[in-house]
Structure prediction request, 514 residues.
Amino acid sequence: MSESRIHKSLLNVKTNIFFFVFTLFISFFSRKIFLECLGDNFIGLTGTLGNILGLLNLAEFGIGTCISYFLFKPLQCKDQTAIREIISVFGYVYRMIGMGIGLIATVISLFFPLIFKDSPIGLGIVYFAFFSFLTSSLIGYFINYRQILLTADQKNYVVVAYFQTGGIIKTLLQITLAYYTRNVYLWVIIELLFGFINCGILNWKINKVYPWLHTDIKQGKQLLKKYPDIFTKTRQIFIHRIKDFILNKSDEILVFAFVSLKMVAYYGNYLLIINKIILFMNVVSDGMGAGVGNLVAEGNMKNTMKVFWELTAIRFYVTGVVCFGLFYFTNPLITLWLGSEYLLDNWILYLLLFNLFVMFTRGVVQMYIHSYGLYADTWSAWFEVIVNLMVTVICASQWGIIGILLGKVLSSTIIALFWKPYYLYRDGLKLSIFDYWKGMMPHYFLFALGIALFYPIVHTHILPHIHDFIDLLLYGGGIIAIYAIAYIIILYICTTGMRNFVCRIPIVHKFLRR
Prediction:
């Protein structure tokens, strides 16, 4: 990547991480205040209404991703006319989706007297909260659609900074009002008010960064004919996103169906830890996706592949450290946090971590697939869903949660580890798949070797000494740090990607130049 592209990617990552950590802390604190001051019924209501709107927002799946793909080339060529046209098309399509969501949401609200008939919350606050949340959501479809250009242009840190800062101020204000007034209407009003405030500030910033970006939604309807691939790729991406939604949101439902409600809570403890790690990884990788898209649009194959292997090495390094820590210290954490009675079978943990490994290490291939616009393999999404459900139905009745996870692991392994790389190399990079496996095998081998070599050390000298959270922090943190240092040294010696990445670090780069 060019220095500018690297700088923007790092700025996106740093901004995402900073706000992730800050909002993670404030979310735990604010939830406690809201539960105590506003009541669990009201917080349960906001969660339920949020889920309803989340299902309606499935209609958006694929549109933003598709448009960002079409923007990579015009941004690379600085074609302002094409950018204005694509954003105009995006604005028109988003407005149609927003109108559809608003209409469906209004119809659903007619059934609230039935849906919430046994709720202790009055229908007045139910309707007030629902339409306030709906209005905040629709702002993105009718007004904030131009922010997609910031994301595609590697300026997502602007969106994150403004929205997250607004979100933090909003939450602090809600905490204060909840504590002193305990008024649920004020809480909802603040939620709605900041939707408009964030909208105004973000659009002011967009006008400042792109003064030439004058879009015409009416023209966007006519321009759809000029960009017929937008609907084609949107439909393809939508199918892949629906697959992700089904597979990632079905675990607890399947555990309830095949095991028990009690085991949903037990399994949920493990998912809470895993999902926080996934969220953190997504926060980091989201800052790099647009950089890869701009790199591919540049058309320099040598540089494209150099960055591919650098990102692969970094992915394996972070995945290795994360999986090492979770492999050895998840059970001690559960024991100290909740008690040993909440521990599940070790095979459940192993399968969860294997699925996590597949999800993380597939990330670079997924970035490049998006950058090349390769979404036509919709059959793979249906295949993954069908295999997952078939294996689950067959195995879950026999092995419970283990059977459910076997379905997920088997389907994702076939598609993510084997088909997706082949698809990328065949239709995107136009290279032999043997080049891919030649570069990947050392990463797989070193990952497994690192986990195995530390097994006797951890079990003999670390785990027996962990009796409280301080021990976990000292002993666990210490051995993870040692492993992290050893692993990066091994990757540096054995892989070109890690060597190239390390050389990008300013202090190392200056040393090598001298």
About this structure: The radius of gyration is 24 Å. The chain has 24 helices and no strands. Residues 266 and 342 are 6 Å apart (CA to CA). The chain has a mean pLDDT of 81.
